[in-house]
Design goal:
CATH topology of the largest domain: Anaerobic Ribonucleotide-triphosphate Reductase Large Chain
CATH class of the largest domain: Alpha Beta
Structural class: alpha/beta
Distance between the termini: 19 Å
CATH architecture of the largest domain: Alpha-Beta Barrel
Strand content: 5-15%
Amino acid sequence: MTETVGNPAAAGKPEDEGTNRGIRVPRVHTTEGVHPYDEVTWESRDVVMTNWRDGTVNFEQRGVEFPEFWSLNSVNIVTSKYFRGALGTPERESSLRQLIDRVVKTYVRNGVEYGYFATENDAEVFEHELTWMLLHQVFSFNSPVWFNVGTESAQQVSACFILSVDDTMESILDWYKEEGLIFKGGSGAGLNLSRIRSSKELLSSGGTASGPVSFMRGADASAGTIKSGGATRRAAKMVVLDVDHPDVDEFIETKSKEEHKIRALRDAGFDVDLGGADMSSVQYQNANNSVRVTDEFMRSVESDGKFGLRARTDGSVIETVRGRDVFQKMARAAWESADPGIQYDDTINDWHTSPESGRITASNPCSEYLHLDNSSCNLASLNLMKFLRDDLTFDAELFEKTVELVIMAMDISICFADFPTQAIGDTTRSFRQLGIGYANLGALLMATGHAYDSDGGRALAASITSLMTGTAYKRSAELAGAVGAYDGYARNADSHQRVMRKHAAANDLVRTYHHNDVAVHRLATKVWQESLEIGARNGWRNAQASVLAPTGTIGLMMDCDTTGVEPDLALVKFKKLVGGGSMQIVNQTVPRALRALGYQEEQIEAIVEYIAEYGHVIDAPGLRPEHYEVFDCAMGERSIAPMGHVRMMAAVQPFISGSISKTVNMPEEATVADVEEIYFEGWRLGLKALAIYRDNCKVGQPLSAGKSGKGDDKAAEKQIEYRPVRKRLPKKRPSETISFTVGGAEGYLHAGSYPDDGLGEIFVKLGKQGSTLAGVMDAFSMSISVGLQYGIPLEFYVSKFQNVRFEPAGMTDDPDVRMASSVLDYLFRRLALDYLSYEKRAQLGIFTIDERNAQAAEYDSGPAAGGAELDTMRSTVDSSSDSSRSGGEDNQAVGSSTELMELRLGKAADAPLCMTCGTKMRPSGACYLCEGCGATSGCS
C-alpha cells in the first residue's frame, strides 16, 4: 500500500492563528430552498462495457442513476472509473448523487472545521453551489479526488508531483523508492538530475563518476517493472537535465539512439511491438526527457557563440562547446524520437513567486506543473462551453464567480489531504500550490467564429486565461485575509507581488479585436487591480494558482469536445448510442460557428451535410473560403500549422502560474530546421516549456549512415563488386488474381509466383484502359516485378509502401485489410499476407483478422493485475452510421474519433492503441486519451 503522510496536529487551523473571519458565499447557480438534485430529471442507465474486438462483456453495472442530459460516454467513464465499492455489493456506489456527495460533503466538512466560511449558511450555499456545478458538468476535480476523497483509503488529492535528487547514493536510492511509491498510486513525477556529477568528474574515492544517465537506466527499469506488475499504462515521469551539465550530449541522444536500436532489432526479427518480448532490452522508454536551457545558452545559439559546460562539484568550466551544435543535436534527437523537450529556465524562474525558498528546477511529467522540489499540485478544470450564452457571447461575470468557488474548494482540499512522502506533504502545506485550468477552448473558439490560429482567437483565449488566473489570485488574497497567507509568503512577499504585477502588466498588453474578448478583457483588468490591492493588504493563500493540464479523463466526464488548450481533433466525431451501437456526427460546434459567421439555416444545413460526407469544409457549398480557417483542426485536411500551436501557447502563457501541457504536432515531412525554429521561437515568445512530436517519427525512420569507413587495410586493397542476377519466371507459373475496392475505386491485382513458392511479378489493373492512372500502374507493376526478379525481398517493398498516403483511400472490401491509406498501402499489405511468413509479417505489424482475434483473446485471457480491477476494463462500439452516403463504412468497426477520422479521410493518425481496451487513442495535451474507457497514456 502506498506510504502516506497524514495531517499533522497543527495543520494550520485558523483558530490556532486567531485570524478567522471566514468567507461569505453568495448564490451563483442555485436557488434558495431548492436542492440542485431536485432541478434535474434523473434516469436509470445500464452500463455494459464490452470489448470492441469481440463483443465480450468486461464491465457491467445496471441501474445506475444519472441526469438525463449526461451522455452515454460520460456515464460509462464515471461508473467504471470513479464509483467506489466492490461490484455486486451494497457498498458499491450506484448514483451520481452518491459520488458527488462523497466528495462535496468532505470538502464542506473540512471547510467548516478549518474556518473557511463566515456562517453556517455560507457553508450550505457552498455545498449547493459545488454540487450544482459538478452535476451540470461546469467543472471537475482531477481524478485522484474522485478516487480517494471520502473513502477509507488515503485522501490523496494531487495528480502532479516533483521530486529531487542530490549527488549521493543515498539520495539516488531514495529517488527510486519515492518515484516507485508515486507510480504505484497511479500518479506521475518529475525531477532534475543536474546535481548528480557527470561522467567527466572524479569521485571522492578517486574513481570516475558514472553520470546521471547511468542512473536513469535503473530508474527506467524500476518504472517498467512497476508498470508490468501493476497498472496497465506506462509509468508517467519526467527527467530534466540542465544544458550546462557535462553529460548533456549523452542525455540528449538517449532516446534517439534507442530508436535506432528498436529498428535494428525489428529488422533482425526480434519482437519489438508494444509489449513485445524483446522490448525489455530497450531503455529510457518510461520517461519524458527535457533539457533545461538558460537565456545565456539561447543567446549563444542566436549569436553562434561558445557555451561552457560546468562541473557539478565546483562550478568550473570543464568543456567549452558551440551552443548552436548542442541546440542542433537537441532538434535532431527530437526530430527522430520526440525527445528531448525543452524547458526555458530563466523564463520559468522569472515568474517564480517563491524564489527565496528555492529555484524551480523541474516539472511534472506533462510539464504543466512547475514549482519547488518535493511538492505537489491538485488540479481542477472548467468547461468553457458552459459559459457561452445563446447569443454566442462569453459570460465573463459568471466565469469569475465560478472560479472563486472552485479555487476555494481546491484550497480546502490541502487541509485534509494525504501525501506520498513527508517532504512533499510539508512543502505542499507550506506553499499550497493549486492548478485551476480549463477544457473546451478549441470548441469555444470555433463556436464563436474564431480560427484557432488567428489574432482574434488568441485574444479571446488570452483574455479568458487572464480573467481565470486574476480571479484565482484575487480569491487567494481574500482567503489569506480569512484563514492566513501560505507559510512561505512572508519570506517571498516581494517576489510574489512582483510576479502579480507582471501578470497584470501582461494583461494590459493584450490587444482585443471583438466584442467578446473586449468584454472579457475589461473584466480581467478590473480583477487584476483588485487582486493587487487585496494582496498588498493580506498576502496570498497560494504560491501558485493555475496550470493548463491535459484534462483527459475528466474532459470526458464533462462531455467536452476538446481537451485543455487543444484545438478540435476533427470536424466529424464518433458518438456512442444508448442501448448499443454508434454513429458519426458533425461536431455540434460547427452549426454554432456558422451562425456566428452569419450563415442562414438552409446554408448551414447544406454545409453540415457536406462535412458529414467528406470530413472537411473545402469546397463546401456556400461556405466562403475566408471562413475555412475557422474550421481548421488538429488533424486531417487543413490541419493547423505547428507554429499556430506555438502562438496560441504564447498568447496564454503570461496568464498561467505554471505552464501548459501541450505537444506541438508536426507533419512527417518536417525538417530538423523546423524543430529548431519551434524551439527557438518558444524561447523568444516567452514559453516556459515545449515539446514536439513529428508524425511517424517512431516508425520506419531511415537508419543511420552506416559504418565509419575504418576497416581492415587488406580488405581495402581488394574490393569485390557484386551485381544482382535476374531470375526470370518460367513460361508456365502459378498465379492468382484478386479483385479489390479501396475508397470506392475498384481494381484487380494479378500476382505470379515461382514454382518454388516465391512472388516474382505483379500486374495491377486500376482505371480505364488508356488513362493516365492505368498507364502509371502498368509502369509501376513492371518496375516492382523486375525488382522482385533481381532479388529485392518483398518485405522491403512492403515496409516502404505500407502507410503511404494518397487518394483513393479508405474502406476496402477485404476483411483482413479493412482500411487502407492508399491503393499501394492495400496492395502491399495484401501481398504480405499472401506471400510472407508470419514471423516477417509480425515484424511489419501485418496480421490477418483471425490472427488479430487470437492475439486479442490471448491478451484478454490474462489475469487482471491486483487493484487494477477498473483499469482493465474494455469498451466497445458497434459501427453504425447515420449517413447513407457512407456506403460500406457502415460495417467498419471504429472505437474512437481518431479511428473515425481515419475512416473518413483515409489517413492514419500516429496515435497508440489503448492498453486497456484496444481503442485508438487521441492526443490530449502532452499524452493520449482513450475515448472508450477514459484511460490515458501517462498523465493523470
